[in-house]
UniProtKB/TrEMBL annotation, chain A:
<feature type="domain" description="ArsA/GET3 Anion-transporting ATPase-like">
    <location>
        <begin position="17"/>
        <end position="181"/>
    </location>
</feature>
<dbReference type="InterPro" id="IPR027417">
    <property type="entry name" value="P-loop_NTPase"/>
</dbReference>
<dbReference type="Pfam" id="PF02374">
    <property type="entry name" value="ArsA_ATPase"/>
</dbReference>
<dbReference type="InterPro" id="IPR025723">
    <property type="entry name" value="ArsA/GET3_ATPase-like"/>
</dbReference>
<dbReference type="InterPro" id="IPR016300">
    <property type="entry name" value="ATPase_ArsA/GET3"/>
</dbReference>
<protein>
    <submittedName>
        <fullName>ATPase</fullName>
    </submittedName>
</protein>
C-alpha cells in the first residue's frame, strides 16, 4: 500500500530520481529498473533520457523514442512506465511556443538553423532546456493531481553530471536577466530541494569507484541532494575466507564424479585464486564507498545480460531493504 | 595476420597483429576509439609504450582524460598541453622514446585563435563571454581540439608515431562529427546572417530568410536580452576573420585521418553497448574511407577448464548434499559463473565479428586489478600482441 510502513518505495522518497554513473556501469538499466519499481501497485512513472543515445529503446527493444511521452512497460500490480527522450531543439521550440506563441515562425527558425545555433553557441542553454523539460514533467499536474508519481532521469555520466545539474552557473555567465535566467533558477531550485535525489551507479572497479567519489564530492559542494550509491553487478561472496588446495579440489571432484586430471584441478585452482584476488580488491573498494557515508544498495550481476525479463531482478533488489 | 584464431565465434576471425602496425614506419598515427569505459586510454598508453620499447620508435601519446593514477605513472601531473618524456621506460637498444601529454581543451582553443588572428582581435575574443562558454563547454570542443592537437603534433614532424586516445564522448562517433559540426557552425548560415548587416552593401543573398531572421533577432532579444545580442555579434564579427582557417584545418586533419599513414583501432569491451558503438564506428570509418586496422576487445574472460556451467553447478549441488566439500563446491560455482560469463561475452562479441568478419581482432584478457604503472602497461602491451 502506498504510504504504509511496509512500502519498499519509502526508501526512495524523492519525486525526481537522477541516475548517474561512469559509462559502462549500467546506469540506464538501473534507471529503468527503478522506474519499474516505483510504478508498481498502480502508479505511473516517467523514465527520461537526455543524451540522444536511445538507450531506453535499446533496453526495451522498441523503436527509437520520439520527443513524446509513451508507455513503454507495465509494472507489477497495474502500474505504468512511460518513457521520453528529450531533444534540446524540440524542447526550445516547445518553450518558445509556450511563452511566445511562435507557431510557424518557430519552425522557420529551425529551418534556418537558428535553434541549432542557439543551443550550440550557448551550451549551458542546452542543459537548461533539458533539465527544464524534466522539471516540467516532475511538477506537472492534471485535475489537481500529479501526473507522475516519480520521474527517473537517465542522466549524463559522472564526468559531466556536475556541470549538467549546475544549470544556473552555466547560464548566469550568458544571461543576466530575462526568461532564460528565470527558467534556470526554477530548475536549480527543484534540483536543490528534497524533491530531488541523485543516485550514483558504480561497479566494484577502481575507476568507477574513483569517479563516484569525485562526483559525490562535486555534488555535495554544489548543494545538490545525493541519494544512494548503487553498486551494480556484484558477485555472490564465494570462497570468502577459504584457502583452497589442489589436493582438496581433487578429492571434491572425485566425490562429485567429475574428471580429476591435472589440467582440470590446476585450472579450477587458478580460477579460484584469481577470484580471490578480485574479491580482495572488491572488498577494499566497497570500504572506500562505505566511507562516503551514503546508503548503499547492491545489485546482482546478471550472467545472462540485462533485458526486459532480467530487469525485474534488478527492480526487486532495488526495493529490498538492505 | 591471416592466421585464424580459436574461440567460440561462428567463423574464424582474422587475428590483429598489433606489432606489425607499431613497427611499420609508414604508420605515423594510431587512433584508439570506442565508447566510454572500455579501456581506451590504457590501450593507447600500452601501445605507445610498446612502440617505444620494442620497436624503437619516437612515440607520443595524446591522452584526453586519463585516470589519475595512470596519468601519474606517465609523469603527467599537470595538464600543461605539452608532451613530456616518460623516463621510466626500458627502450634497450631499440632506442625509442615515449612522450605523453594530456589535452587542455581551452588552451588548445586559445592557441588556435592566436594562430589565426592578430593579438588585439584575440584579446577581444578571449574576453567575450560566448567564447568563454564555447571554449570550455561546447559539447564538440573537446573532440575538435583533440583533432587540432593531433594536426599540430603531426605538422611538427618530430614523431615517428602519434598514438591518440579519443574523448569520452556521448557517442564514439562524436570524434568524427564534432570537427565538421564546429566548422559548419563557424562557417554557417546563421553566422553569416548575423554578420550580413555589417557587411558591405547591406543587401545580400539572404533576403529570402530575412523575415524569419528578424523574428529570430526579436526572440533572442526578448529571451536573453540586448546585452547578450551585442556580445553575440561581437563574437561573431571577431570570429569572421578565422572562418577560412578553421575549416581548412578541420579538412586537413580529416585528410590525414584518411591517409594510409593512419591506423584506427576500435576498442570495445564485450558488453552490448560497447560492441554496438564499435559496429557504428566501423561502418562510419568505411563510409569516410578511413583505414580501420582492427578491433581490440578488452576485458575478455576465458576459462581453461572444459566443464560446462550446467554440469559444474549440478556437481556443486551434489557436493552440498554430500557435505565436507564446501571449498570445492564454491570453486565449482566460481567456475560456473566464469563459464557463463565467457559464453555471454562470446555471443555479444559475435554481434561485431559477424557483421565485420574481415576486421582483424585481438582479445585482451581481463586483468584482476586495474593498471596504474608502466609495468602494468607493458603487460597489457604483451597481451595486445599475444606474447
Amino acid at each position: 500500500m502506498p504510504g504504509s510502513e511496509q512500502d519498499p518505495r519509502a526508501a526512495w522518497p524523492a519525486r525526481l530520481h537522477v541516475v548517474t554513473g561512469k559509462g559502462g556501469t549500467g546506469k540506464t538499466s538501473v534507471a529503468a529498473a527503478l522506474a519499474l519499481g516505483l510504478a508498481a501497485g498502480g502508479r505511473r512513472t516517467l523514465l527520461v533520457e537526455v543524451e540522444g543515445r536511445q538507450g531506453i529503446a535499446e533496453l526495451f527493444e522498441t523503436e527509437p523514442l520520439p520527443y513524446e511521452e509513451r508507455r513503454i512497460a507495465t509494472a507489477a500490480g497495474g502500474g505504468e512506465v512511460r518513457a521520453l527522450a528529450v531533444d534540446a531543439e524540440l524542447a526550445l521550440l516547445e518553450y518558445l511556443d509556450l511563452f511566445y506563441k511562435l507557431g510557424a515562425a518557430g519552425r522557420a527558425l529551425r529551418k534556418v538553423g537558428a535553434i541549432d545555433f542557439a543551443t550550440t553557441i550557448a551550451p549551458g542553454m542546452r542543459d537548461v532546456l533539458l533539465t527544464g523539460k524534466v522539471k516540467e514533467a516532475t511538477t506537472r499536474t492534471a485535475e489537481g493531481r500529479r501526473v507522475y508519481h516519480a520521474v527517473v532521469l537517465d542522466a549524463p555520466p559522472t564526468g559531466r553530471i556536475g556541470r549538467f545539474l549546475n544549470v544556473t552557473a552555466e547560464t548566469a555567465r550568458l544571461a543576466k536577466m530575462g526568461p532564460i535566467k528565470t527558467q534556470s533558477e526554477g530548475v536549480a531550485a527543484l534540483l536543490r530541494s528534497p524533491m530531488t535525489s541523485v543516485h550514483v551507479v558504480t561497479l566494484l572497479e577502481e575507476m568507477p569507484v574513483q569517479e563516484t567519489v569525485d562526483a559525490i564530492n562535486e555534488l555535495t559542494a554544489l548543494g545538490i541532494p545525493i541519494g544512494k550509491l548503487i553498486v551494480n553487478a556484484t558477485r555472490p561472496p564465494l570462497l570468502a575466507d577459504a584457502r583452497v588446495t589442489q589436493a582438496e579440489l581433487r578429492r571434491g571432484l572425485a566425490a562429485a564424479g567429475l574428471p580429476t586430471e591435472r589440467g582440470v584441478v590446476a585450472g579450477l585452482h587458478a580460477e579460484a585464486k584469481a577470484h580471490q584476488t578480485r574479491r580482495a580488491l572488491e572488498e577494499s573498494l566497497r570500504l572506500d564507498l562505505a566511507e562516503l557515508g551514503r546508503p548503499m544498495v547492491e545489485l546482482p550481476l546478471l550472467p545472462e545480460g540485462v533485458d526486459r525479463a532480467s530487469l525485474d531482478k534488478l527492480t526487486a533488489a532495488l526495493l529490498t531493504p538492505q | 595476420m591471416t592466421e585464424p584464431v580459436r574461440s567460440g565465434y561462428a567463423r574464424p576471425v582474422p587475428s590483429l597483429d598489433v606489432d606489425r602496425i607499431l613497427a611499420d614506419p609508414n604508420v605515423r598515427i594510431v587512433v584508439c576509439c570506442g565508447s566510454g569505459g572500455v579501456g581506451k586510454t590504457t590501450t593507447a598508453a600500452a601501445l605507445a609504450l610498446r612502440a617505444a620499447e620494442r620497436h624503437g620508435r619516437r612515440t607520443v601519446v595524446l591522452t584526453i582524460d586519463p585516470a589519475r593514477r595512470l596519468a601519474q605513472s606517465l609523469g603527467l601531473t599537470e595538464l600543461d598541453n605539452t608532451p613530456r618524456q616518460v623516463k621510466e621506460i626500458d627502450a634497450g637498444e631499440a632506442g625509442g622514446e615515449l612522450h605523453a601529454m594530456m589535452l587542455d581543451m581551452k588552451r588548445t582553443f586559445d592557441e588556435v585563435v592566436l594562430t589565426h588572428t592578430d593579438p588585439v582581435r584575440a584579446a577581444e575574443i578571449f574576453a567575450n563571454p560566448f567564447y568563454q562558454a564555447m571554449s570550455s563547454t561546447f559539447s564538440g570542443t573537446q573532440e575538435y581540439m583533440a583533432m587540432e592537437k593531433l594536426g599540430q603534433l603531426h605538422a611538427r614532424g618530430e614523431w615517428d608515431l602519434i598514438v591518440v586516445d579519443t574523448p569520452p564522448s556521448r557517442s564514439a562517433l562524436d570524434f568524427l562529427d564534432a570537427p565538421a559540426r564546429l566548422a559548419r557552425f563557424l562557417d554557417g548560415r546563421m553566422l553569416r546572417l548575423l554578420l550580413a548587416p555589417a557587411r558591405a552593401g547591406g543587401r545580400s543573398m539572404f533576403t529570402l530568410v530575412t523575415a524569419s531572421f528578424n523574428v529570430f533577432t526579436k526572440v533572442v532579444q526578448k529571451i536573453i536580452g540586448a546585452q547578450l545580442l551585442t556580445d553575440l555579434s561581437g563574437f561573431v564579427a571577431a570570429l569572421d576573420s578565422m572562418f577560412g582557417g578553421f575549416r581548412q584545418r578541420a579538412e586537413q586533419t580529416y585528410r590525414i585521418l584518411q591517409a594510409r599513414e593512419t591506423a584506427f583501432l576500435l576498442v570495445a569491451a564485450p558488453e552490448p553497448d560497447a560492441v554496438r558503438e564499435a559496429a557504428f564506428f566501423a561502418r562510419r570509418l568505411s563510409e569516410e574511407r578511413m583505414p580501420l586496422a582492427g578491433l581490440v576487445l578488452n576485458r575478455v574472460h576465458h576459462t581453461a577448464v572444459d566443464l560446462s556451467a550446467e554440469r559444474t553447478l549440478a556437481a556443486a549441488a551434489e557436493l552440498d548434499e554430500l557435505g565436507g566439500h564446501e571449498a570445492t563446491a564454491e570453486a565449482l560455482r566460481v567456475h560456473a559463473a566464469l563459464a557463463q560469463q565467457t559464453a555471454r561475452e562470446q555471443s555479444v562479441a559475435a554481434v561485431f565479428t559477424d557483421a565485420f568478419p574481415g576486421v582483424p581482432t585481438v582479445e585482451v584478457t581481463a586483468q584482476p586489478a586495474d593498471i596504474h604503472d608502466v609495468d602494468g602497461l607493458r603487460t597489457v602491451g604483451d597481451a595486445l600482441s599475444r606474447r
